[in-house]
Amino acid sequence: MPPKLRSKGRFQSIGKLGEWAEKMLHVFAVEGQAEEGSQLAKLRKAFPHFSQSKDFIMRFASTTKIISQVMEILKNNGLDKTTYKRCFELSRKLPRNSKVKKCLQTWLKNHFALQKKLTPHPLLVSSDIIESLFGNFKHIIERSPQADMNRTVLLIPALCGKLTGSAVTQALRQTSQADIKAWEKKHISYTVRKKRHAFFNKNASQNTGNT
């Protein structure tokens, strides 16, 4: 059976399907009648016209291999001048009239222009780093008795890069509690915790007035 693809992000592992199809072509290339009950006989019965799609399968497998190589380069190194050239050279190996080739080259050109405009550093292409960052953030805030997105978001920059002891000391000295409260009031004006406090304070004042 072909490899099972995930319902979400199914195209990220489509290269495995291309590899499987290419291997199956080699299996079906065996000439002569297969022995009854053998694996080859069962496969021929399950996929009776598989070899008739050989041309398509070969193009599909070749395309997915190249795209997988491009994705690996961009995922591990980001997009900059060096990786742009490597990926563009790989795209040249795709068939002349390939829609995938045209789309890939257009994407590379547009995003390389964006990278040059925005930053001297490689442009992040994969979301793995962001997912890892928020995973660490979630692990930390789970320790809090109140799962509220408030000033705890200030933890996120502290989880990025390499922090030295002197940098942490400087940040603590230069950032006052008043600064944090002002930032929270401006950017996180009404959290669940504040709503809860406002509700109880309102009830308390009403009860006091009634008495």
How would you describe what is shown here?
8% of the residues are buried. The chain starts with 13 loop residues before the first helix and ends with a helix. With 211 residues, the chain is an all-alpha fold. The chain has ten helices and no strands.
Largest sheet: none
Task: Let me know the number of strands.
Answer: 0
Tertiary shape: elongated
Number of domains: 2
Label the structural class.
mainly alpha
| CA-CA gap between termini | 76 Å
Number of helices, where a helix is a run of at least 4 consecutive DSSP H or I residues: 10
| Order of H and E elements | HHHHHHHHHH
Radius of gyration: 28 Å
Quote the beta fraction.
under 5%
pLDDT < 50 stretches = none
State mean pLDDT (0 to 100 scale). 83
> Helix fraction?
55-70%
Task: Give the gist of this structure.
The protein is an all-alpha fold.
Topology of helices and strands:
Blueprint: H1 14-28, H2 39-46, H3 54-77, H4 81-91, H5 99-118, H6 128-141, H7 155-158, H8 165-174, H9 177-187, H10 192-210
Helix pairs in contact: 1-3, 3-4, 4-5
Supply the key terms:
2 domains, 10 helices, mainly alpha, 211 residues
